[in-house]
Specification:
The chain is of the alpha/beta class and about 230 residues long. It has a single domain, classed as Rossmann fold, CATH 3.40.50. The protein is built from twelve helices and six strands. It has a six-stranded mixed β-sheet with strand order 1-6-5-2-3-4, with helices on both faces. The termini are far apart.
C-alpha cells in the first residue's frame, strides 16, 4: 500500500464520512469493496466523471475491488438529485442503448480485468411488492424529504412524483446487495450515499464509508457537467 494513498484521497475529496474509520481500514491494509453507481440516462459518460473514475483507479492500484453498478433499473425512475423538476422516464430500450458505450469508456481509465460490473436489475427487478414495502419501512418519509432538492421543490410548489421517493431506497439497496465498504460519487450524491449507510445498518451490515468529490461545472458555469444536462 502506498503510504500517501489516504492523503491523496483526502486531498481530492470534498467530504469523507467517516474519515478516521476509512483511514484506519486503509492503513491496516483491509481489502475494500469500493462502489460507484452509474445510471445510463444518456449514451456517454462525460468529463464530469473523470475525477471520480480516476479515484477508482487509485483504489484499483492499491489492490481494492472496484464495483461499478450500471443502474439499468434505477434509470427507469431517474435520480432526483439536483433536479428542480421530475426527470422524464426512459424506456428499457433507451436505457440498454445508453449503457452500450459505458464499458468502452470505463476501459479508458480503469483496468477492466479488476472491475466487478453489476446491473442493479439483478436484485431490484425481482423484488415483490412486499419486498419493496419492507425496504421502504427501513426509513421515514421525513428522512427522504429533507434532501435539499426535494425541500426546494416543496418550497417552490414544484411537484415531486411519488416514484422519485423510491429512488434513494433503490440506490441504497445496491450497497446492501454488493456489500459495499466504500461508496464514492459527486457532491450531488451526498444524500444518496449517506442514505445508503442508514439502509445498510438497517439490514445489519457495517455501513459504508463515503467520499464525495467536486462536480465539474457545465458550460453555463452553474449546472453540473454530466451525461445529460
Amino acid at each position: 500500500m502506498s503510504k500517501d494513498f489516504f492523503e491523496r484521497l483526502r486531498a481530492r475529496a470534498v467530504q469523507i464520512d467517516v474519515e478516521e474509520h476509512l483511514r484506519a481500514r486503509v492503513e491496516r491494509g483491509d481489502k475494500l469493496r469500493v462502489k460507484l453507481g452509474l445510471d445510463p440516462t444518456a449514451p456517454d459518460l462525460h468529463v464530469g466523471h473523470l475525477v471520480v473514475l480516476d479515484t477508482l483507479r487509485m483504489f484499483q492500484d492499491e489492490g481494492h475491488t472496484v464495483v461499478v453498478i450500471i443502474g439499468d433499473y434505477t434509470a427507469l425512475i431517474g435520480d432526483p438529485s439536483g433536479r428542480s423538476v421530475t426527470r422524464p422516464m426512459l424506456s428499457e430500450d433507451e436505457i440498454a442503448r445508453n449503457a452500450e458505450t459505458y464499458f468502452k469508456q470505463l476501459d479508458l481509465v480503469l483496468d477492466r480485468e479488476q472491475i466487478e460490473v453489476r446491473h442493479n436489475s439483478e436484485w431490484l427487478a425481482s423484488m415483490t411488492a412486499a419486498d419493496i414495502l419492507r425496504l421502504m419501512a427501513k426509513a421515514t418519509l421525513q428522512q427522504v424529504l429533507q434532501r435539499e432538492d426535494f425541500a426546494d421543490r416543496m418550497k417552490e410548489g414544484t411537484p415531486i412524483s411519488a416514484h422519485e421517493i423510491l429512488y434513494p431506497f433503490n440506490q441504497a439497496y445496491d450497497s446492501v446487495a454488493v456489500k459495499a465498504d466504500v461508496e464514492i460519487g459527486g457532491t450531488d450524491q451526498l444524500f444518496n450515499l449517506l442514505f445508503g449507510r442508514e439502509i445498510q445498518k438497517a439490514y445489519g451490515l457495517e455501513p459504508q464509508d463515503i467520499a464525495v468529490f467536486p462536480l465539474i461545472e457545465g458550460t453555463d458555469g452553474v449546472q453540473k457537467m454530466s451525461k445529460s444536462l
